């Protein structure tokens, strides 16, 4: 019976495919389709480096350069996934960009140790994801949707204070928390929410990007947009490897290594979603190649002063929606990213984005990350008493140590970096509790307050 359903689903998917993975649309069609992929991922690719750079106190020129490198590496990584270099790459239409999973850990590392430690940890820990690609079948049971969903939720939850801070402006200035700043952030938030709810298709998926563009323009008459750095930025420049040096801090490497484990789960899901759009499961070499590319290109990112890369789920959704799974279309998006990454003026325009605009977008973006984690749990785990306990304890510990890190101020400095990371503490708590708490006899156990939330299938 299940085989019949699978075959029927495959036929339905094939009927919805306009261009398959190996199909090449004529250029007049491929170009706008590639730009569509670029628009779907552009905001996240530039917003996350902006958040990290601002949080660790980088100046305008450094921020512009890191955004430039984020675009460049994302473009190269996308082309590697699309066209493959040896065993590196899935040969699938996968768009790459800065991973949200790493934002909170990188801020913790950068605040404590600086940029050199960030890039050192990014490079040294990257092989973890390569290794996962080859042993995933043996360790998959350790990372069920319950655990990975909790960690993804923690990513969004630990970033909430940053979104609210940006919405108020720049801390320490006279205008911090002014009605002008909060009003601009509210405008971005309202537009994003309105477009998402009132439109369908691509407009809905690009709602935050539309809101940011409107907020960016609205900042001009409010006197909040400073484009002075754009005029002095060059039209073209080559990257400078290891421009900020490297340092290797054990606690920083542990934090980033754990983030690589979690982002590999996200990549596996994205690869499955991509092939499912054309009615099949991913082949082993595609999953392995995709994970190897994630790890290798994240190490390359560290060398070229960018943050770790991963597959972008919104572009997987775009493929399913449009029925265009062509690798060559995604390759066009990768070329655009490389071009933008070689033009500092583009990065300077992006880096000039006022904090309230980024804050208003951050409220939506980080909230969406929380909802994605919640959906992962809802779709992959039964909400029994055991699982609800794991969720509750993990989230409380993760959010607690992140938001009140001063409670652990008496710990040694190395231990503080680990102990105050919500992703590490909450994620490890979820991992350990899921491994040690028994599942037998949990079926049908009432949830908190005595109401049965769900029952196990058996």
TrEMBL record:
GO cellular component, one term: plasma membrane
Compartments (UniProt record): Cell membrane
GO molecular function: xanthine transmembrane transporter activity
Top-rank taxon, per record: Archaea
Bilayer topology: Multi-pass membrane protein
Principal location class: membrane
Signal peptide: none
Entry's transmembrane regions: 38-59, 65-83, 113-136, 143-162, 182-199, 206-236, 242-262, 329-351, 357-376
Keyword line: Cell membrane, Membrane, Transmembrane, Transmembrane helix, Transport
Homology family: Belongs to the nucleobase:cation symporter-2 (NCS2) (TC 2.A.40) family.
Name of this chain's protein: Xanthine/uracil permease family transport protein
Organism: Haloquadratum walsbyi (strain DSM 16790 / HBSQ001)
Organism taxonomic ancestry: Archaea, Methanobacteriati, Methanobacteriota, Stenosarchaea group, Halobacteria
Gene: uraA2
């Amino acid at each position: 019976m299940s085989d019949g359903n699978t075959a029927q689903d495959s036929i339905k998917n094939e009927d919805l495919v306009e261009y398959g993975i190996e199909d090449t649309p004529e250029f007049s069609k491929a170009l706008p389709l590639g730009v569509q992929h670029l628009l779907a991922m552009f905001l996240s690719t530039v917003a996350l480096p902006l958040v990290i750079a601002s949080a660790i106190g980088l100046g305008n020129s450094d921020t512009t350069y890191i955004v430039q490198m984020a675009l460049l590496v994302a473009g190269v990584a996308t082309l590697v996934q699309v066209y493959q270099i040896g065993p590196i790459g899935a040969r699938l239409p996968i768009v790459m960009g800065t991973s949200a999973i790493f934002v909170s850990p990188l801020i913790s590392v950068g605040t404590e140790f600086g940029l050199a430690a960030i890039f050192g940890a990014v490079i040294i820990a990257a092989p973890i994801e390569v290794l996962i690609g080859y042993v995933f079948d043996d360790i998959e049971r350790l990372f069920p949707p319950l655990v990975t969903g909790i960690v993804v939720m923690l990513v969004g939850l630990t970033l909430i204070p940053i979104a609210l801070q940006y919405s108020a402006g720049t801390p320490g200035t006279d205008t911090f928390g002014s009605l002008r700043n909060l009003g601009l952030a509210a405008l971005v938030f309202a537009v994003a929410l309105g477009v998402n709810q009132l439109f369908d298709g691509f407009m809905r998926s690009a709602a935050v990007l539309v809101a940011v563009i409107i907020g960016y323009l609205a900042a001009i008459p409010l006197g909040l947009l400073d484009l002075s750095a754009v005029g002095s930025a060059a039209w073209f420049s080559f990257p400078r490897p290891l421009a900020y040096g490297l340092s290797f801090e054990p606690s920083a490497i542990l934090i980033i290594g754990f983030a690589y484990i979690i982002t590999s789960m996200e990549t596996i899901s994205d690869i499955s979603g991509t092939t499912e759009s054309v009615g099949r499961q991913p082949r082993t070499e595609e999953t392995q190649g995709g994970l190897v590319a994630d790890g290798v290109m994240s190490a390359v990112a560290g060398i070229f002063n960018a943050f770790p890369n991963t597959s972008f789920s919104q572009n997987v959704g775009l493929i399913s929606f449009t029925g265009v799974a062509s690798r060559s279309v995604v390759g066009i998006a990768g070329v655009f990213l490389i071009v933008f990454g070689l033009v500092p003026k583009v990065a300077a325009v992006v880096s000039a984005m006022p904090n309230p605009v980024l804050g208003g977008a951050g409220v939506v973006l980080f909230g969406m990350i929380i909802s994605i984690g919640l959906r992962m749990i809802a779709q992959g785990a039964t909400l029994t008493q055991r699982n609800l306990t794991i969720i509750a304890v993990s989230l409380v510990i993760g959010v607690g140590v992140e938001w009140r890190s001063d409670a652990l101020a008496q710990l040694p400095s190395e231990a503080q970096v680990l102990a105050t990371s919500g992703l590490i503490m909450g994620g490890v708590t979820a991992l350990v509790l899921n491994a040690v708490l028994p599942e037998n006899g949990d079926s049908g156990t009432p949830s908190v307050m005595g109401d049965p939330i769900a029952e196990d299938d058996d």
